[in-house]
Amino acid sequence: MKRDRTFAAAWRAAFARRWSIAGRLTRLYFLCTALLLAVSSAFLYFGLSRSLVAQDRALVSSKLRVLRVLLRDNGNAPELLRNEIEHEAGEAGSLVYFLRVIDGDGRTLVETPGMAAAVPAAAFPVPKAGVDQMGPEERETGDGRAFLMASARAATGEAVPSLRVVQVALDVSHNAELLGRYRLNLVITFLAGSVFAALIGAWVARAGLRPVVRIAHAAHQVTANRLAARLSSTQWPAELTLLAQEFDGMLDRLEDSFRRLSQFTGDMAHALRNPINNLRGEAEVVLARARTPEEYQQALASSLEEYERLSRMIDGLLFIARADDANAAVERRHFEVRAEMEAVREFYDALAAEKGVTVTCEGEATLVADSMLVRRAISNLLANALKHTPAGGTIALAARSFVAGEVEIVVADTGTGIPPEHVGRVFERFYQVDKTRDHPAKGAGLGLAIVQSIMRLHRGTAEIASTPGRGTRATLRFPTASS
User: Fold this and answer.
1) Cα gap 403→160, rounded to integer Å
2) Torsion of CA 281, 282, 286, 292, to 10 degrees
């Protein structure tokens, strides 16, 4: 049983894969049209059949009423009654029906010529006691013809009324032939309409999907060197406008990513070139002539500094790469932000004193986050602030919490500030405001990028606000623990 279900599922999946969207739309349009034609044909056919039956029954009942009136008004004048019946039958036109009057003893008083051979009196339903009329009901005669028959009791209009039985028979054999021709016409109409619907459906589906083909062709033209093409400039159907806009948005993001990647590659090459060139230069100088052990030690110490610089750069890149992983684990715990800020301040106390910069801490807040990552973010911001704050300046570390549970950490300095055109890009990897990047005191430009990655891991935000000549304010906002 399980194998049969698996086979059926595989067969349905393979069958579904073979149909294109145009094919599916055509098939759906064909099935809907065929169903509509079938229902309409059935409705028309059974409607005509019921209409014919209703008309025939109404005619038979009408003839019965006429005969009963004739008997009541002309019961004592059989010749007049005979003339009326024969005259009525003579005006039947395309309808074939018969009329008969029988007396109480079962003798035929008058009937339509030829009725005895076509429809014997015994073929009619006999009125039961207490029932004036039987029928109309359809019966077949010995020759296979179908008649709608009815019989009823009637009284003459004489002083002493005589009881009579009137019989009416309507030939309905032509109804079957008429319905057969009508049924054949409906079948032909159904088949022709279905084929026509399939052709029209295929044409409509392909015409409707033509814009999708154009979008696919436009997407095929997009390469790494051709990202400037956009789809929204073309007039698309309303259903595809959103797709075109989203496609253009994707191209915008791809173009920006390629630009950033190109810039990142160039910046990384430049950042790696400097220490490597320094190492190579020192090695060439040392090997140019014989050196004393002290000179070799000095050269190795200088090389070690460059190796440490390369190691920090590689560690930073690896950290950012891991932080870019949406599934990266973050070890969250409750801790006091003030304690982490004090630890970072103490670490940089000696450097701050050497530069003549005052570092302060204020505020209290409890945060649920990875304390080591938060300390690293604060450390990077403080190190960056120390680089750009002159002697006599101040750097303030502050923390505060909000009623909603959010926590904000601020690092504000009174340094040189950042020009407005650079503020929006300081979190990019290897980006440096001062383009003269060969200065040995400068970092690799990864400090703020690491801060941004740490905040992204915590689903928070990092913002920079700066005024040239007055200082810079960096703000880290952490969401509530529940979010």
Assistant:
1) 112
2) 170
- Domain enclosing residue 350, as ranges: 329-478
**Residue listed under structure tokens 């055509």:** 26
| Residue recorded with tokens 């806009």 | 245
| 465 within domain boundaries | yes
Distances in Å between the Cα of 277 and the Cα atoms of 182, 263, 274, 283, 437 are: 97, 21, 5, 10, 14
Judgement on whether residues 288 and 415 belong to the same structural domain of the protein: no
**Residue 70: which pLDDT band, with cuts at 50, 70 and 90?**
confident
Helices (DSSP H) in 91-138: which residue ranges? Answer: 115-118
With the CA atoms of 432, 436, 440 and 446 taken in that order, what torsion angle do they form, in degrees rounded to the nearest 10? 10
Percent of the chain's residues with pLDDT above 70: 86
pLDDT band, residue 389 (cuts 50/70/90): very high
Last residue of a domain, one of 220, 240, 255: 220
pLDDT at residue number 441: 44
Q: Is residue 8 part of a domain?
A: no
Residue 154 shares a structural domain with residue 111: yes
Contact in structure between 411 and 377 (CB atoms under 8 Å): no
Report if pTM > 0.85: no
Q: Judge whether 104 and 164 are in contact, CB under 8 Å.
A: yes
Q: Are residues 470 and 342 in the same domain?
A: yes
Residue 191 and residue 57 in one domain: yes
Report residue 141 as tokens: 């005669």
Q: Are 171 and 97 in contact (CB under 8 A)?
A: yes
Could you tell me the CA-to-CA distances from 30 to 26, 39, 44 in Å, in that order? 6, 14, 21
- Starting at the edge strand found earlier in the chain, the sheet holding 97-102 runs 108-111, 97-102, 163-171, 146-155, 133-140
pLDDT on residue 141? 82
Cα 470 to Cα 415: distance, rounded to the nearest angstrom: 6
Residues 299 and 240 in one domain: yes
Domain boundary among 310, 328, 346: 328
